[in-house]
Amino acid sequence: MKSQSIRRKSYSILITCLTCLILSIIVFQGRYFQNWLYSADTLHKVFVIIAWFVLFAFYGVCLSNLLKSNEKQKNYLFLFGIQFLAFVVYVISTYCLATYIIATVSSILSLIFAFLLAIKLFKNKQYALMFLLILIIIYYLYCVFFSMIFCSLEYGTWKN
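^ that's the sequence the OP posted. Answer follows.
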């Protein structure tokens, strides 16, 4: 039984690391992200790379804390994985494909699953993890807001 728990944790870490690596490669090779990265309005490239690393380090801290507290509730990792997958779809659809409808839907799904996970953590009195997830929820609210703005600019009446 102990080896199954270690195997599940190692698979979760491996899947998350591979997802971060693949997402980084896709986004940094993406057409719209490259245009944004090299435009005159953006910050220096080093700041973007540091922010990208800090974001994934924050996800890693959340994942490691969820792995420690996942003994009783096995659906913590599932909800975290689903909201992270929806975030991956948001990033790819925004920065690589410029499909803002998909970005809006995936950012809303990320927000919903992160909120459900925060509620489960609150019910089980894991307040430190809940605080980390509240920071992610605030970031997802930012993503929802801007994806709705970009969607309305791209497809709405403002385009005309």
